[in-house]
């Protein structure tokens, strides 16, 4: 410590004006050199440092502004996306509801169409049965008529002479012809 204070004290007493000496005491010269270097750096570097800091500040502020704009844009896009999502959800619900309604309507239509088809098939079946019954009845009538006719002819053949027999056959043929015309 004494060396440092001695160097400051000795600065006040300069030996002679014409002589120049180097102070070799490192402890005494370092604080002086550092203060001179710092003073020069502060004096000359202050403008450069201010410019660097101002540029950095402007870059940070512009980055913050850009980030804010991007955030606002992202928020707007998010709101638009949410609105579209709500709209799509509403449309999906409508489609789902309408789809279920349409499915139910198609189901009812299919049931009605099936019922109508079954009704038509039932009517066709009944008509077919009625037609077949009528045909069977007509066949049975014809067979009964033919058998009755054959019995009558057999009885007449046994009882009648040939002229009467011939007239009866002609009349019966005429009757049969008219019966056949009615059945056709």
Automatic annotation (TrEMBL):
Q: Which residues cross the membrane?
A: 32-49
Per UniProt, what is one GO molecular function of this protein?
A: proton-transporting ATP synthase activity, rotational mechanism
Q: Which InterPro entries match?
A: ATP_synth_b/b'su_bac/chlpt
Note the topology in the membrane. Answer: Single-pass membrane protein
Q: What is its main location?
A: membrane
Q: Among the entry's GO cellular component annotations, what is one?
A: chloroplast thylakoid membrane
Where can this protein be found?
Membrane; Plastid, Chloroplast thylakoid membrane
Q: Which residues form a coiled coil?
A: 64-98
GTP-binding: is it a keyword of this entry?
Answer: no
Classification via CDD domains: ATP-synt_Fo_b (cd06503)
Q: Which domain of life is it from?
A: Eukaryota
Keywords from the named record: ATP synthesis, CF(0), Chloroplast, Coiled coil, Hydrogen ion transport, Ion transport, Membrane, Plastid, Thylakoid, Transmembrane, Transmembrane helix, Transport
Its subunit composition reads:
F-type ATPases have 2 components, F(1) - the catalytic core - and F(0) - the membrane proton channel. F(1) has five subunits: alpha(3), beta(3), gamma(1), delta(1), epsilon(1). F(0) has four main subunits: a(1), b(1), b'(1) and c(10-14). The alpha and beta chains form an alternating ring which encloses part of the gamma chain. F(1) is attached to F(0) by a central stalk formed by the gamma and epsilon chains, while a peripheral stalk is formed by the delta, b and b' chains.
Q: Which family does it belong to?
A: Belongs to the ATPase B chain family.
Q: What else is known?
A: In plastids the F-type ATPase is also known as CF(1)CF(0).
As for what it does, the entry says:
F(1)F(0) ATP synthase produces ATP from ADP in the presence of a proton or sodium gradient. F-type ATPases consist of two structural domains, F(1) containing the extramembraneous catalytic core and F(0) containing the membrane proton channel, linked together by a central stalk and a peripheral stalk. During catalysis, ATP synthesis in the catalytic domain of F(1) is coupled via a rotary mechanism of the central stalk subunits to proton translocation. Component of the F(0) channel, it forms part of the peripheral stalk, linking F(1) to F(0).
Q: What is this protein called?
A: ATP synthase subunit b, chloroplastic
What is the organism field in this record?
Answer: Aspidogyne longicornu
């Amino acid at each position: 410590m004494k060396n440092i204070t001695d160097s400051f004290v000795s600065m006040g007493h300069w030996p002679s004006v014409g002589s120049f000496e180097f102070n070799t005491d490192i402890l005494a010269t370092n604080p002086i050199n550092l203060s001179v270097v710092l003073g020069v750096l502060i004096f000359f570097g202050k403008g450069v440092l201010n410019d660097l800091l101002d540029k950095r500040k402007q870059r940070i502020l512009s980055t913050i502004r850009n980030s804010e704009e991007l955030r606002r844009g992202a928020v707007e896009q998010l709101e638009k996306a949410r609105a579209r999502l709500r709209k799509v959800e509403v449309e999906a619900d409508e489609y789902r509801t309408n789809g279920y309604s349409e499915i139910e309507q198609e189901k009812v239509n299919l049931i009605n169409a099936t019922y109508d088809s079954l009704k038509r098939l039932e009517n066709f079946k009944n008509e077919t049965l009625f037609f077949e019954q009528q045909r069977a009845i007509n066949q049975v009538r014809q067979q009964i008529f033919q058998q009755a006719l054959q019995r009558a002819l057999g009885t007449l053949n046994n009882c009648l002479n040939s002229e009467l027999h011939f007239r009866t056959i002609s009349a019966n043929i005429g009757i049969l012809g008219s019966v056949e015309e009615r059945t056709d």
